[in-house]
Specification:
binds S-adenosylmethionine
Length: about 475
């Protein structure tokens, strides 16, 4: 611990402890927006491979990946990544060959992560003088031991599941001295400490355990953001963080009512959040925001009021014009939305984009009758339509739906939120493709304002954004040039 404190101290950080939260990371110097607070390589990580897409074990890339010819489980994009993983995979490969073919389906990312965790621990602790994988102050199993597990708060059903998963790990490792109780506890640790590894556009690629990053607590109004550069976890300040302040990231999707966020945090991380946003639960402003983001629209098309349930629970009353909407009416449309949404999701999963687009348009039409115009559900439907039209190379329709989402993004992702930056980036790319050069410059600028803080400026992703902005600016100024200047 002393060594870790020293290493963190050099970065302007320190580990402290708060009675209601446990360990926390405190800034011991001021951090400015966009500044990297801390970065870490995973102790262990696994890509989330599916039958349709396989990713390299090391860089998570999906181009030219080839299966390990011995275990047929792990994929690599080339010899550099294979070599980088060899010390661990050599032993993992042997272990994976213990699984009978028909049991391979049980080899979920969590099981693989746990097997790798134990193998890595063994390679770091065996042969103390000269371990196969050397330890460092931020790369050693004692940091995993220090993680919270919440074992005493877990229900019976979950405990049984962890015990079954531990047995599976035992089947793979076949170590006579494996402590099954400890394995089960480690599954519980993974549940509230592992991070979903995403690409720069926040699409999930896999899972990783970053034991120092895991010291950082949650806030629904965070002062920092966790972004991945390949497998490297990078935490950047999204606002000025004065010395002495706790560094906080968000563990969950922050667009959601306080009740929804609290539920998600309780279910996975087993705590009640008391951030400034959550402290407003039940107050007028919070009730209104929840009813807008997740509630219904007024029966009068022109009214933008939000609805609350009347005391006898038979109707919802518009808080602006007083108009009542019957519960039955709402239930009927909601059930129609559910039926068509399920069909749309099936069409999308089967790759039938044309059918999916027309079904999602029906969902949108129904939701326009049901939900508040700033509803998150309506926004998600429009996001789906945008993505489908992008897949169909129908840039005009894609831009139409992208633009419809922007006002909701503005409301649901305030401050320096990467989601808003990414949506402006998409908008800019579509405008550029459609020849709306000046609009694309504006959208790229808005994207850059946010993403330079959340993503830094050095990654290939950000270099591409900067290049696109430069290109659009050059074309916009060329278009603005008076015709005679060309002569
Ligand atoms: C990834 S760990 C964070 C570090 C943790 N505090 C520790 O002592 O190791 C996640 C756990 O920290 C606690 N935690 C995180 N954010 C919190 C918050 N805002 N309020 C209360 N507890 C929190 C919860 O117990 C949660 O399951």
């Amino acid at each position: 611990m002393e060594e870790l404190q020293r290493a963190l101290g050099e970065r302007g950080l320190s580990v402290s402890s708060l009675p209601e939260k446990g360990r926390c990371l405190i800034a011991t110097k001021d951090f400015s927006p966009g500044e990297v607070i801390i970065s870490q390589e995973p102790y262990v990580s696994v890509p989330s491979n599916t039958s349709r897409s396989s990713k390299c074990e090391v860089c998570f890339g999906s181009d030219n990946v080839k299966k390990c010819s011995a275990c047929h489980v792990v994929w690599y994009c080339g010899s550099a990544c294979q070599k980088a993983d060899w010390k661990l995979h050599r032993v993992e490969c042997q272990a994976l060959s213990n699984i009978e073919k028909d049991k391979l389906k049980y080899l979920t990312p969590s099981i693989r992560l746990m097997v790798k965790l134990y193998l890595r621990r063994k390679l770091q602790t065996e042969k103390v003088e000269c371990p196969v994988i050397p330890t460092t102050v931020t790369d050693n199993y004692s940091l995993v031991e220090a993680l919270v597990s919440h074992m005493s708060k877990i229900d019976e059903k979950q405990l049984v599941l962890y015990a079954q998963m531990a047995n599976l790990v035992n089947l793979i490792l076949q170590w006579p001295d494996l402590n099954l109780k400890e394995v089960a506890e480690n599954f519980s640790k993974l549940a509230c400490n592992a991070h979903s590894i995403c690409d720069s556009e926040l699409r999930p690629l896999g899972t990783g355990l970053y034991p120092v990053i895991s010291i950082i607590n949650h806030s629904c109004l965070p002062n920092s953001v966790l972004i991945f550069e390949g497998r490297t976890a990078v935490v950047r300040a999204v606002e000025r963080i004065p010395k002495g302040t706790e560094v906080q990231i968000s563990y969950i999707e922050t667009a959601g009512s306080t009740m929804t966020r609290q539920k998600a945090l309780k279910a996975q991380y087993l705590f009640s959040c008391s951030c400034p946003r959550c402290m407003k639960l039940g107050q007028g402003e919070d009730i209104q925001e929840s009813a807008i983001l997740e509630g219904y629209r007024c029966g009068d098309d022109k009214c933008m009021g939000f609805l609350l349930r009347d005391p006898d629970k038979k109707a919802f009353i518009c808080q602006q014009c007083g108009l009542a909407r019957k519960l039955e009416d709402i239930k009927d449309i909601a059930s129609e939305v559910k039926t068509v949404s399920d069909k749309a999701a099936k069409s999308l999963a089967s790759g039938n984009n044309q059918e999916a687009s027309s079904l999602y348009k029906t969902v949108e039409r129904l939701q326009l009758k049901l939900c508040h115009p700033f509803s998150l559900n309506l926004m998600h439907t429009r996001e789906s339509l945008m993505k489908i039209f992008m897949d169909l190379s129908n840039w005009k329709e894609a831009l139409f739906y992208c633009r419809l989402t922007i006002p909701v993004y503005e409301r649901a992702y305030p401050g320096c939120h990467p989601m808003r930056g990414l949506q402006y980036y998409t908008c800019g790319k579509l405008e550029w493709l459609l020849g709306e050069t000046e609009n694309s410059v504006r959208s790229f600028m808005k994207a850059l304002d946010i993403l330079r803080v959340t993503h830094g400026t050095n990654t290939p992703f950000m270099k591409e954004l900067l290049f696109k902005l430069e290109e659009a600016c050059a074309e916009a100024s060329y278009k603005l040039k008076p015709a005679d200047e060309d002569d």
